[in-house]
């Protein structure tokens, strides 16, 4: 009798536990659905990390366990490793021609690979190092990289797992041009086990860049990309589309989202016969076009950093009377300012308002917290990064 009594209690406990679990899951799903149903958002700061370091620092990545943060000093070209408490754990310069170096300037922001290991993309390939800065693994391309175009803090190196990475790495066609070849793959799949590079992800058939009669320079094609839950999310810089791939099939996207910008200034392609492929000049107009600068994904949330671009009239107003190139670029960047928003499944953009004193959304951790940088308008004698939650605006 006693045994039967305890069996019934256990069964009841299981049933009650299952009901509570369903209620809990239901509440989470309802909360998630309510968040996605909002029309606009704001970020609520919940914590911050102060680091005793002063330099031209940009933020790169946070480890899966949340215990370490990577940054990059753009002046010294040092990869910086910090603890979550703000302690400086290392400064590593891996540029140049030494045996363990990436060659020249980095082509990507550094990324964590696994516990006690980070990696970075350079002209020599993908190189991984431990937390003491010692080379652990490397993979070099079997084709000459004729272009080493550094895009500040470009997020173009991502790991599918601890051994396989995807990277935007030009040069496979061997033509040595700053103009993107519409007939070749746009990403490299990098295997640390074998050291092999293989071309993947041809330009989608519906993309404006898939047109051999109108080619585009690399500044308009640099991808914004992220990997989450077995999918690749990628947008080419000056095209208002988001492509979603299954990582098991990178030959063609499984989904195409047309992003519903209110305004997005696109640059026209040029005839291949009208360009000098061996020379490439950058002028102020190149920074006045619409641009998709960053894609960050967590669960059903897709966050985009973008700039809409300047019309001809807006460009003239911003550049009028400015002869100093640095003053001109500064004014254009201020006029063509970055914005942040969520992309819905229908392509609608829902704006995200950032708190005062912050600059950019940098990365999302494994728990879904959003990390944002300080805006540097007020000079500090230390570095500062904030942790925030996404909230619906009522």
From TrEMBL:
Which superkingdom, per the lineage?
Bacteria
Q: Which SUPFAM superfamilies match?
A: Tricorn protease domain 2
- Its name, as the record gives it, is 6-bladed beta-propeller protein
List the source organism. Answer: Belliella buryatensis
Source species taxonomy? Bacteria, Pseudomonadati, Bacteroidota, Cytophagia, Cytophagales
């Amino acid at each position: 009798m006693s045994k039967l009594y305890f069996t019934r209690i256990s069964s009841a406990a299981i049933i009650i536990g299952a009901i509570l679990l369903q209620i809990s899951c239901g509440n989470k799903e309802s909360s998630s659905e309510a968040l996605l149903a909002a029309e606009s958002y704001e970020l609520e700061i919940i914590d911050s990390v102060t680091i005793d370091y002063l330099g031209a620092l940009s933020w790169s990545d946070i480890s899966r366990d949340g215990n370490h943060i990577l940054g990059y000093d753009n002046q010294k070209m040092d990869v910086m490793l910090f603890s979550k408490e703000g302690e400086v754990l290392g400064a590593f310069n891996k540029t140049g021609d030494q045996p363990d170096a990436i060659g020249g300037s980095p082509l990507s922001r550094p990324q964590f690979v696994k516990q006690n290991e980070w990696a970075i993309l350079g002209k020599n390939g993908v190189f991984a190092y431990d937390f003491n800065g010692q080379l652990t693994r490397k993979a070099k391309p079997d084709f000459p990289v004729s272009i080493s175009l550094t895009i500040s803090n470009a997020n173009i190196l991502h790991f599918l797992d601890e051994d396989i990475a995807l990277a935007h790495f030009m040069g496979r066609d061997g033509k040595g041009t700053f103009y993107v070849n519409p007939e070749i793959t746009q990403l490299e799949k990098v295997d640390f086990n074998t050291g092999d590079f293989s071309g993947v992800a041809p330009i989608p058939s519906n993309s404006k860049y898939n047109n051999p009669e109108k080619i585009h320079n690399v500044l308009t094609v640099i991808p914004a990309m992220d990997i989450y839950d077995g999918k690749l999310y990628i947008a080419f810089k000056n095209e208002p589309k988001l492509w979603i791939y299954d990582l098991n099939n990178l030959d063609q996207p499984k989904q195409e989202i047309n992003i519903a910008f209110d305004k997005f200034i696109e640059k026209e392609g040029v005839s291949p016969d009208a360009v000098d492929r061996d020379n490439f000049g950058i002028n102020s107009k190149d920074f006045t076009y619409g641009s998709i600068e960053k894609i960050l994904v967590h669960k059903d949330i897709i966050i985009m950093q973008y700039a809409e671009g300047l019309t001809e009239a807006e460009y003239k107003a911003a550049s009028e009377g400015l002869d100093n190139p640095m003053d001109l670029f500064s004014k254009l960047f201020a006029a063509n300012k970055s914005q942040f928003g969520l992309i819905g499944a229908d392509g609608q953009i829902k704006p995200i308002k950032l708190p005062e004193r912050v600059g950019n959304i940098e990365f999302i951790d494994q728990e879904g917290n959003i990390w944002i940088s300080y805006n540097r308008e007020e000079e500090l004698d230390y570095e500062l990064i904030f942790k925030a939650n996404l909230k619906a605006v009522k």
